[in-house]
Specification:
alpha+beta; two-stranded antiparallel ribbon
Length: about 170
């Protein structure tokens, strides 16, 4: 019986390509598949393809960090073998430990800096306050008033002269 069925399977694989193989799942329920390298009827070699079927997600909603880093590396062919659950949990615990150590070192550093500032061993950083922006026309000068001003009652058509062009220019 395996003879005819084997022949049909081989024919199907040759015509349609091999079926996807479930490689594993992660702790979130995402399923990871691979389609092995194969040759088409025309003799074209199709490389191995790896992909994920995310649980409760559409392809356009995918964001970095939605899948474990180890599975990301496998999908992008940065590693040959798929990760194990033990490996993922071990790496996750390691990352949490590193976050805690970084937090502890940062707090110790802040305390040490405060102590050095207090004892006068290190000068405190200078705190400057600059108003405006260097590209603003009033940078370093007094800022323009926020109160609205109007020249409607004193405006005379044709009376405006550009600055620096006094009446001596016209004579």
């Amino acid at each position: 019986m395996s003879g005819p069925w084997g022949l049909l399977r081989a024919l199907r694989a040759r015509v349609l390509g091999p079926a996807k193989e479930l490689v594993g799942t992660d702790q979130f329920g995402n399923k990871y598949y691979r389609v092995p390298r194969h040759e088409t009827r025309a003799g074209q070699i199709i490389p191995e393809r790896r992909f994920v079927e995310a649980i409760n997600r559409q392809a356009y909603q995918y964001e970095m960090g939605d899948f474990p880093i180890e599975w990301e590396a496998w999908i992008r062919k940065k590693r040959n073998d798929p990760p194990t659950i033990e490996e993922i949990l071990k790496n996750e615990n390691y990352r949490e430990e590193m976050k805690q150590k970084i937090k502890d070192v940062s707090e110790k550093d802040k305390l040490l800096q405060a102590k050095e500032y207090k004892e006068g061993l290190v000068a405190e950083p200078v705190r400057t306050h600059v108003k405006g922006h260097a590209s603003a026309p009033y940078y370093g000068k007094k800022e323009p008033s926020q109160d609205p001003t109007s020249t409607a009652s004193t405006f005379q058509p044709g009376s405006w002269m550009p600055p620096g062009s006094g009446s001596s220019h016209n004579k």
